[in-house]
Fold this sequence. Notes:
Elements: E1 10-13, E2 16-17, E3 21-34, E4 45-59, E5 76-82, E6 91-105, E7 113-120, E8 125-128
Antiparallel strand pairs: 1-2, 1-5, 3-4, 4-7, 5-6, 6-7, 6-8
Amino acid sequence: MATHSGVEGTVKVGANAIAEIRSFSVEETGDTIDDSTMGDTARTYIAGLKTYTASIDCLWDETNTTGQGAMTVGATVTLNLYPEGATAGDIYYTGSAIVTGRTITASYDGLVEISITCQGSGALTQSTAV
Length: 130
């Protein structure tokens, strides 16, 4: 069984890396459809549509125009999430996503941070870096 350190991860918008990533998450879910009928003694279900959401937390970098700067609310992007790194043979997840939110946070005793949220549009697929 292989394990990986989170420090290996990266996120790209298309081919462009998002700078200063602190963490990211991706959640894939699937609907269920009730197909129970009269006479059944227990509910039964079939699989329905799948969806995914992603969130990316970074230190804010206004010079990262093709990464953080491309993640504007309402933009449709190709999101590439690499939990184990982006070297040849590494597994990653890719899909089209709509940027649904950006939160920039600053405090007097901390660094400026940005959180970005995305809603998947279509399938999230698993691929292998080349």
